[in-house]
Amino acid sequence: xxxxxxKTYEQGSGSKAVELTRILEEVALQTQVKIIPxxxxxxxxxxxxxxxxxxxxxxxxxxxxxxxxxxxxPEEAVKVGIRGVFLNHSEHKFANWEDLxxxxxxxxxxxxxxxxxxxxxxxxxxxxxxxxxxxAYEPPELIGSTSISVATAQPEIIAKAxxxxxxxxxxxxxxxxxxxxxxxxxxxxxxxxxxAVATDVVKAVDPKRxxxxxxxxxxx
Length: 220
Ligand code: G3P
What we know:
The chain has ten helices and eight strands. The chain is of the alpha/beta class. It starts with a strand and ends with a helix.
């Protein structure tokens, strides 16, 4: 599976989020690889109305109905058709670990899938204790890189992450600088079930071509 994180890139915002999602859907249908657009909260409802793909958002807050100005409620995310959320991405950390614990628990209550990011093996171990749907290992220093990926720079760490996550019974996703079928193939060989990608697809001149190339990494 491939999570495509639209972040707040212009190429993945507003009407462009809908256009990019259309490309993701075409590639998913053509290749039969599961592809998940992870869009901004503000674009989610429009994107959901335009696609058959499962749509995720990039963050949700550990709140219930009440006085929480500017926060996002897990139950309202479910109501508009959002199927899952990223949590603890290195670009959107919670104020403290307890808030992350509560966010995962709130998502479980409303049946929203979760992917909890970790920047290190230590954080990954802690993330596994929360029993999210997926965990992801992403070294922050490689995020956005166009020359070096987590798969080429840190194969030993991915292999260790795979052992830890297998023991914890939670599927592993890896991300940061993923840009080629070789990166995907290597990540899967090391024990991940999928990748999270942004720059290589969202900022590409030809996102379809880049995405098709990534899907090639799933072929045996
Ligand atoms: O969530 C995935 C993202 O952080 C990876 O970004 O630009 O390195 O593919 P990028």
